[in-house]
Amino acid sequence: MKLVFINPPWQTNDEDRHFYNSWYYANGYFKPDSRKEGIGNPMPVKMYEQVAGFQGIRFNEKTKISKQTVEDLKDVIYAKADTIFYSNPNYDTNPIGYLPNIIGVKLGEVYKRNPIIVQWWSRAFGLFAYLLIVFFAIRITPVYKNVLMLIALAPMSLYQSASVTYDTLCNATTFLIMAFIIKWLSQKEKVSTREISLFCVALAIQVFSKAGYYFIPFLLLIIPSEKFSFSYSKIKLSILLVAILMLPKFTWNPYISSFHFQGGKPLQNDFVFSLTQNLAFHLKNIPGMISDLVSNVLMQGKNWIVGCIGRFGYSYTPLPDAWVFMYVIVLFGMASIDHNGNIKLTRMQRGISALLLLASLAATIAGLYLNFSPVGARVVFGGQGRYFIPIVPLLLFQLFGTIPNNAKKYLPLITILISILFLYKTVAVIDDTFYTAN
After folding, report:
1. 25-34, 194-203, 233-242, 277-286 — which is least confidently predicted?
2. Which pLDDT belongs to residue 162?
3. Beta partners for residue 87, in sequence order
4. pLDDT at residue 425, as a whole number
5. pLDDT value at 381 more than 60
6. What is the rounded distance in angstroms from the CA atom of residue 158 to the CA atom of residue 355?
7. What burial letters (b/e) apply to 222-238, b meaning 16+ CB within 10 Å?
8. Does the pLDDT value for residue 318 go beyond 80?
9. β-strands 38-44, 317-318 pairing
């Protein structure tokens, strides 16, 4: 819970927008309104002013946040009748990814209609939901418990989960999906209908929370067919996965499209953003596109790795390189030895897993390059390490069963000590970076 309060208000990437969406849905604003100012909804003036007051802080020795200022602002009460119209660039984001945060907003407003306090409630419920799902994931898998725990309690994973963002449910349900697959791979009995249903629910929540991680659930294909109680299991399960992945396109997306809103989004009017146009542009020079992607991986790769472990706030403050390197080494070492020696992956299973990993990494990078970068840009815009967190369990799974060992009994203690050490360091870095001494 320390991260809920030590992280300055609205300093996680895009947390201001995610908080606005959570507040809108908590207060029944499911239909955006189109006005000359843009597309959005009314918002309490004092809430908007307070959130805006925490944006654009440079976080150098002269400009940091005073903890006393935060205390003083806790006395501000916003009135829902005193509003401004906020042009919301994320008006089309569906509410499912915000469910824990929405509950937190509703309960926080009962306690006190103060922006900072309501945000803390929203953060706390997001963190609670995250830890609950992660607990269930670690509990059900007979092996890889320590690996999943280290990934889930990594500084960046916890930092995101203790913020108002749809990353919370996206990351947690991805870990749960991996836990189900590893459990089914390990067990001798057949997979129950109840477990398949829970797997589908987790996947649906993940897809609605944050699109883009379409290949991870297909790791299900490495489970032997005889573990399912129905014929043509791989074909039927693949069709089911595709149907779930397509759910947003047949539910929320048509709902938003039915309003026929016109005009571009704020901050995007100076460039042309179009997946189809960008793809058509780069397909004219495929070698150049491949060269650009390779160059971007080489140039930005280190930042993505650091950002996957710990890179905080709009200031992109990283953990020291030595700490990041230590965590990466521990993760890879743990993944190599945290296994059951009785489970032997076949070449086909390893091949499928590696192929899905490469497809997931390629899809994430290509999505940033084609969908979130301006048409014709040679540089990947907006790439952040936190986008790769859901892929990390699949990455480390490539090491499953590679090192025979007798040290597995020490892994839980190592996992706990590493998690505590890095949580302490994360809190210290945040406190030193964002706040003044007073």
Report:
1. 277-286
2. 95
3. 40
4. 94
5. yes
6. 28
7. bbeeeebeeeebeeebe
8. yes
9. unpaired
For 395-437, the pLDDT digits (tens) are 999 988 777 766 677 888 888 999 999 999 999 999 988 888 6
Pairing mode, if any, of strands 311-312 and 83-87? unpaired
CA atoms in the 13 A half-sphere facing the CB of 158: 24
Strand 83-87 versus strand 317-318 pairing type: unpaired
What is the separation of C-alpha 176 from the centre of its chain, rounded to a whole number of angstroms? Answer: 13
186-189: list long-range contacts, CB under 8 Å, 24+ apart: 186/141, 186/142, 186/143, 186/340, 186/343, 187/142, 187/227, 189/227
Q: 188 or 390, which is more confident?
A: 390
Q: Which of 381, 389, 324 is nearest to 361 (CA)?
A: 389
Q: Give the torsion sign (CA, 137, 143, 149, 150).
A: negative
Q: Please tell me the total number of residues recorded for the chain in this structure.
A: 438
> What would the mean pLDDT of 370-381 be, rounded to a whole number?
83
Secondary structure letter of residue 382 according to DSSP: S
State how far the Cα of 6 lies from the Cα of 2, in Å rounded to an integer: 6
Distances (CA, A) of 39 to 55, 79, 263: 21, 22, 9
pLDDT value for 412: 87
Q: Are 317 and 429 in contact (CB under 8 A)?
A: yes
Residues 209-214: contacts with CB within 8 Å, 24+ apart?
209/96, 209/97, 209/166, 209/167, 209/169, 209/170, 209/173, 210/97, 210/166, 210/167, 210/170, 211/248, 212/363, 212/364, 212/367, 212/387, 213/170, 213/174, 213/360, 213/364, 213/390, 213/391, 214/245, 214/363
Cα 216 to Cα 214: distance, rounded to the nearest angstrom? 6
Distance CA 430, CA 426 (A): 6
| Whole-angstrom distance, CA of residue 179 vs CA of residue 188 | 16
pLDDT at 190 over 50: yes
- The torsion of the CA quartet 58, 84, 90, 38, rounded to 10 degrees, works out to -110
pLDDT, tens only, 112-143: 999 999 999 999 999 999 999 999 999 999 88
Which pTM was predicted? 0.92
Q: Please report, as a single letter, which amino acid is at residue 48.
A: Y
Average pLDDT in the 218-222 region?
95
> Residue 228 has what DSSP assignment?
S
- Quick one: average pLDDT of 158-172? 95
Count the Cβ atoms, other than its own, within 10 Å of residue 273: 18
Beta-carbon contacts of residue 165 (< 8 Å; ≥ 6 apart): 12, 14, 15, 18, 101, 126
